[in-house]
Amino acid sequence: MRCNNILEAVGHTPLVRLNRINQGLKPQIYVKAEFTNPGGSVKDRIGISMIDEAEKKGLLKPGGTIIEGTSGNTGMGLALVAAVRGYKCVFTTTDKQSKEKVDLLKALGAEVIVCPTAVEPDDPRSYYSVAKKLAR
Q1: Is residue 99 in some structural domain?
Q2: How many independent structural domains does the chain possess?
Q3: For residue range 74-85, what is the model confidence (pLDDT) as tens digits?
Q4: Where in the sequence is the domain holding 117, given as residue range(s)?
Q5: Distances from the Cα of 56 to the Cα of 49, 60, 77, angstroms
Q6: Which position has the higher pLDDT, 27 or 92?
Q7: Residues 78, 51: contact at Cβ < 8 Å?
Q8: pTM for the full model?
């Protein structure tokens, strides 16, 4: 499959038959291997849908900024779309996020703000609260 950009590859994941589980069964069981999406998860599809919807509603305009509190996979999906469509990304995440995931988000052009984990969700330092504050 040839793609004009990375977003065209999202969702073209293989169906894989589960041979051991299928032994002796009439119906065959297949799984969709979403981990083969460019960002490594089903959240690539969600990233496209979220941005498509924001564009349709006029909430996200050319050159706009996407702000999201993320534990990683949704951020990756959003960052892929933003990189292709020319949006800026600011993600907040916790200090438990792997360095590799943070580095991947940064490689896609995102700014990543790391927040403490050991606080309540409504604490102004939590990654939820910081994202909400930035979005205002």
Answers
A1: yes
A2: 1
A3: 999 999 999 999
A4: 43-135
A5: 10, 8, 18
A6: 92
A7: yes
A8: 0.87
Cβ contact 53:75 at 8 Å: no
Q: Do residues 74 and 68 lie in contact, with contact meaning Cβ atoms separated by under 8 Å?
A: yes
Question: What's the CA dihedral at 66, 82, 106, 115 to 10 degrees?
Answer: 20
**Contact, 43 vs 74, CB < 8 A?**
yes
CA-to-CA dists, residue 6 to 1, 61, 102, 111, 115, angstroms: 12, 21, 20, 20, 30
| Residue pointed to by tokens 């291997």 | 33
Of 96, 85, 134, 98, the closest CA to residue 118 belongs to: 96
Distance CA 36, CA 60 (A): 28
Separation of alpha carbons 53 and 17, rounded Å? 33
Residue 30 · residue 15 · CB < 8 Å: yes
Catalytic residue numbers read 43
Residue 126 is part of a domain; what is its CATH number? Answer: 3.40.50.1100
Q: Domain for residue 6, yes or no? A: no
**Looking at the domain assignment, is residue 57 inside a domain?**
yes
Q: Is residue 117 a part of any domain in this protein? A: yes
Tokens 């460019």 belong to residue: 38
Beta bridge partner(s), residue 67: 90
